[in-house]
Amino acid sequence: MLNSQTIAAVADFSRTPKMEIPVLNDTDLMHRVVERDQSALSELYERYGNPVYGLAMRVVQNTQLAEEITQDTFLKVWNQAQSWDPTRGQLISWLLTITRYTAIDRLRREWRQPNLVGAPVEDIPGLFSALDMVGDARWQDGQILAALLNQLPDEQAEVVQMAFYQGMTHTEMAERLNLPLGTVKTRVRLGLQKLKTLWLESSERQI
Amino acid sequence: MTDELRPQDGYSSQSQPVNPELEATRELLPAYALGTTDPDETRMVKEMLTRFPHLIYELEVYQDMRRALTFSAPTVEIPGMAKSRILSGLLEATAPSVAQSAAPVRGSAPTPPPSGGLLDRLWRLLGGSPDTPAMLRLSPALAALAVVLLVASNLYWSGQIQQMREEQTLLIALASQQDTLLTLVGSGQVHRAELAATPDGTGVETVSVVWNPNAEIALLYAQELPPLASNEVYQVWFIRGDQPVSAGLLRVAEDGTGSLLLRSPEPVGNFDIVGITVEPSTGSELPTSAPIAAGELRA
After folding, report:
1. What is the pLDDT of residue A122?
2. Which sequence spans correspond to the domains of chain A?
3. Using the beta-carbon criterion (under 8 Å), do B86 and A70 form an inter-chain contact?
4. Which of A27, A73, A157, B211 is the most exposed place for a label (fewest CB within 10 A)?
5. Does the pTM of the predicted model rise above 0.80?
6. Is the CB of residue A25 less than 8 Å away from at least one CB of chain B?
C-alpha cells in the first residue's frame, strides 16, 4: 500500500509546468537517428513496426523469421539512416523496401538450410486482420492491388506473388514449379499485364 | 527489316514490320519492373532501354505497380512479447560501446621510482648487495610496481564486468517469461517492488519493477494496465524528492501486458520512487498528468 507521504510526493511532481512536445515528422525523427538517439529509433519502431512485421510475415510466413527480419530491418535503418533522402520518397516506402529485400534474403538462406521454427501463419487466428489505414493513398493502392491479385487466374497469381514476395527469377520459378521456362515467362507476363489493366481500370473508377 | 518503332497505344501488326528484339524486350518489361528477369534478360532489357528510350514510358506503369505492391501486405500487430524482444534487441545492439581501451586505473597514477633511501631499504629487504649499482636496483621496484598496478586493474575491471553481468541478467529477464523474473528476484542481487494504483489509476493492477541499486537500468513488467488510445502512452519516471526523470515510454498489448527496460542517467538506487503517468504518444519532458501508479524504491 502507498502511504500518504508517497502519494503526496508523487502527486507533487505532476504539477510542475507542462511543456508541449511537438510530434516529430519522419525527417526530424531520422535526423535524430543519424545523431544516434536511441529514443528516436524506439519511436520509429513504434511508428512502423507493424507494417514492417506484416510485410515480413507475408514473405516468410513464419513468426520467428518475421520477428528476426523486423529487428534486422530497424538495425539496418539505424546503420544506414544517413542514406535516406526525404526528397526521393516517403520513409515508409524506404523502410518497406528494406524489409522486402531483407525478408527475401533471409528466405533464400532458409531454402539453403531449412530450420524453420515458430508458428506457421495459418495457425494464428486473426493475425492478418489489417489495421485501419483509411485516407492513406499509398496503403489504399497496395490494398487494391492485393485484392486485384485475387482476380487473376490462379497460375498467374501464383507466379506474380512468387516474383514479388519471394524475389524469384524466371528460372528459379521454373525450377521450383517444375515447369518449362517459357511457360513461367508467359504466366508472369500475362499476369502482370492483366494486373496492370485491372489496376488502371480501378483508378479510373475512383476518379 | 528496319528498326521500326511502334507507338505505345496500339499499332497494327499488319501494316508495319515488327522488330523481334524490340518485341521481346516489350514482353519482358513487366517482369523487369518486378526484378524477376534472369541476368541475361536484365542485361538485354537495359541495353534496349538505352537504344529505345521511349520504352521507359511503358516501363513506368509497371514500376508504379511494383511500388504499390510494397504496400499490399496487410499490417500485422506484433505480438506482445515479440514486440518487447525486438525492442530489447534493438536497444542492446545500438547501445554505445563500453570503452575497451586500457584506461588508466582510477586513483593510481604511475609513481616515479622510489628515492635512494627507500630503494636501498627495499633492495636490502630483497637480499640485494649494497654494492649493486643504483640503476640495477630499480628493476625489482619496477617489477613490484607493475604487479601492484596489475592487481588494481584486475579489481577495477572485475567490478565493471560484474556490473555488466547484472545488467545483462536484467536484459535477459526482459525477454523471458514472468517465472524467470521471479527467479531473478530470488537471487538477492536485485530488488523488487510492486507499484500500487493511485486514486487516478482505475483498473491498474500488477505492475512490478525490478532493479539493482548500483545499475542504471531497471525492468518494469505490467500484467494489467488498461490499454490507451493511440495518441497516448504510459511514461515511467524515476523520482527523487519532487524531481522526476523520464525512464521510458511503456506501451501495453490489448491484454494489458507490457514490459520495459527502464534507463536512468545515474544508479537507480539514487531515486526514491518510480511512478507512471499517461502522456501524449511521443512522451513528455515532464509529467503532464497525475500518476496512475507508483512504488517506493527501497532496498
Report:
1. 40
2. 1-110, 119-207
3. yes
4. A27
5. no
6. no
Residue listed under C-alpha cell 534507463: B263
pLDDT at residue number B265? 84
Contact A145 B251 (CB under 8 A): no
Interchain pair A138, B243: CB under 8 A: no
Determine, for residues B275 and A128 on separate chains, whether the beta-carbon distance falls below 8 Å.
no
* pLDDT tens digits, A16-30: 444 445 567 889 999
In a mutational test of the B interface, the residue from A3, A13, A68 whose CB has the highest number of chain B CBs within 10 Å is: A13
Q: For residues A126 and A131, what is the distance between their CA atoms, to the nearest angstrom?
A: 12
Q: Which positions ≥6 away from B256 have C-beta within 8 Å?
A: B222, B223, B224, B225, B226, B227
Domain coordinates in residue numbering, chain B: 7-70, 191-296
Q: What is the ipTM of this complex?
A: 0.75
Specify the fold of B191-296: Immunoglobulin-like (2.60.40)
Q: Does B293 touch chain A (CB under 8 A)?
A: no
Amino acid A117: pLDDT: 46
Contacts of B93 in chain A (CB under 8 A): 75, 78
At how many degrees (to 10) do helices A38-60 and A63-79 cross?
Answer: 140
Residue A129 sits at the chain B interface (C-beta within 8 Å): yes
CB pairs under 8 A between A and B: 209
Residues 6+ apart with CB under 8 A from A41: A33, A74, A77, A78, B90, B91, B94
pLDDT band at B189 (very low <50, low <70, confident <90, very high): low
For B190-231, the pLDDT digits (tens) are 788 888 888 777 777 778 888 888 888 888 888 888 888 888
When the candidates are 1.10.10.10, 3.40.50.300, 3.20.20.370, 1.40.20.10, the CATH number that belongs to A119-207 is: 1.10.10.10
Which amino acid belongs to residue A176? R
If we measure between CA atoms, which residue out of B246, B73, B193 comes closest to residue A21?
B246
Specify the CATH architecture of the domain A1-110.
Answer: Orthogonal Bundle (1.10)
pLDDT at B195: 87
- Segment A170-192, tens digit of pLDDT: 999 999 999 999 999 999 999 99
Q: Which residues of chain B have a CB within 8 Å of the CB of A167?
A: 35
